[in-house]
Amino acid sequence: MFGTMNILFYPKKKGAKNTEMVPIYARITINGRRSEFSIGRKVQLRRWDSQSGKLRGTALEISNFNRFLESVKNKCFEIYENYLKEGERVSASIIKNAYLGKSKKVYGTLEVFKNHNDEMQSLLGKDYSRGTLQRYQAAYNHLQSYIRYSLRTGDTPIHRVDHKFITGFEYFLKTKQKLGHNTTIKYVVNFKKIIRIAYANEWIKRDPFFYWKASWKNKNRECLTESELSLLAEEHFENKRLDRVRDIFLFCCYTGLAYVDVKKLKKDNIVIGIDGKRWIKTYRNKTKTLSSIPLLSIAEIILKKYSHHSTVHPYGNLLPVPTNQKTNEYLKEIADVCGIKKNLTTHLARHTFATTVTLSNGVPIESVSKMLGHQSLKTTQIYAKVLDRKIADDMAALREKMGKVNYYDKIVEV
């Protein structure tokens, strides 16, 4: 409810023990409804001017007191204007409580989001990875752009976030920011966590995400075929930079390690496994879960090739891994040289290990999950797509089995 606000100061004589010195009260009136509070000061009743609502006189202490009255009035009007600006319900008692500091703090949406990201920053390397922090920072930036675009303001109270706000944010990401469906959903899910924090702290009375559900689209995760892996392995690169990146990419293809886990791989991560052969034992940077990977021969060859590389020894790393940006940049050159039309990235190697190297060769999904360091088998099932070659092999076995019985002759006989 909006309305014109008036503020009146008056001496409250009733109940005053000393009629010479009486307390001064402020009376706030909005839409005919009043609310009063003491300003915490007393004055001599004979000096009070009821017409002007202040003390009479020009003495220094009187001027200071009258300026104090003006500051009380200005503060109340400032609170009033803020409520109007935010479109919040306002009344005389609300203004009074806000002035006296009795009203609940109104948390801004971006304010809560930023506090979350700041806490995440302080726990970097302990509870969170840099990649996770960067995703939440990107989600914050997108939300900030949406609030500026849709509300024309720097922030909005978090209790004003509703289902319409959420779906509007989703639409904004897809149309104005030109983001794909799954990328959009990821950012909205990031925002959902911030709302849940506010709900848990009782800064909001309801969860606006109650009727919103994340809908993911199945993505066709590319991987390299055996023939493409052979092309990579057999290609001779005169350029040492490309040769090194190709080797590290192949190492990822035959171990399933993500870029960040290969970069931090050290000698201590190589152990003798239960079979008496060398294994990689490392905790994934993303989930902190253990990956246990028996080393295949091609991975062993690559480790041996770089065992004396100049950039490896000072830090105890096993491989000379450049930055992720540079690696992906060089992989595009490598793909062109090898005639591979797929978009080679460091993460494509992980898909290749999960599908072409392991699952398509009959390795059980439970074993693949353990090697990939997944926390849930459901995550591994994303990679468990059936390849054409596997279908061909299975059907060849079926043909051979069915060929032993002459079904055609029996059909003809009938």
From TrEMBL:
Annotated InterPro entries: Arm-DNA-bind_5, DNA_brk_join_enz, Integrase-like_cat_sf, Integrase_catalytic, Integrase_recombinase_N, SAM-like_dom, Tyrosine_recombinase_XerCD
Alphabetically ordered keywords of this record: DNA recombination, DNA-binding
Transmembrane segments: none
GO BP terms: DNA integration; DNA recombination
GO molecular function: DNA binding
Domain Tyr recombinase residue range list: 219-397
The protein, known as: Site-specific integrase
Organism listed in the record: Flagellimonas hymeniacidonis
